[in-house]
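The records we work with from here on pair a chain with its fold. These numbers are not coordinates but entries in a learned vocabulary of local backbone shapes. To see the layout at work, look at the sequence and tokens printed below.

. . .
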Amino acid sequence: MEKKLSQFAIGEQGLIRAVGGEGRVRRRLFDMGVTPGADVTLVKVAPLGDPIEVTIRGYQLSLRKSEAEVVTMEVKQ
């Protein structure tokens, strides 16, 4: 099942299938290691829903909700 990273629940895990966006946003995500094939786990969500914290490639990363919206994930069962 595919869904956006921004729609994940705490503790949910998945594999990055595609990174959308354009220009600076897409480049920034790639620079932080958000690339197709990487495993991601949603760790925390801020009280107002933005930002979110994920574990990717062995480190903690905070992403804005708008950045997470362009990342398409394959949900692990």
Remarks:
- The domain at 2-75 is CATH 2.30.30.90 (SH3 type barrels.).
- The chain is about 15% helix and 40% strand.
- The longest helix spans residues 23-31.
- The beta strands are 2-4, 13-19, 39-45, 52-56, 59-63, 71-75.
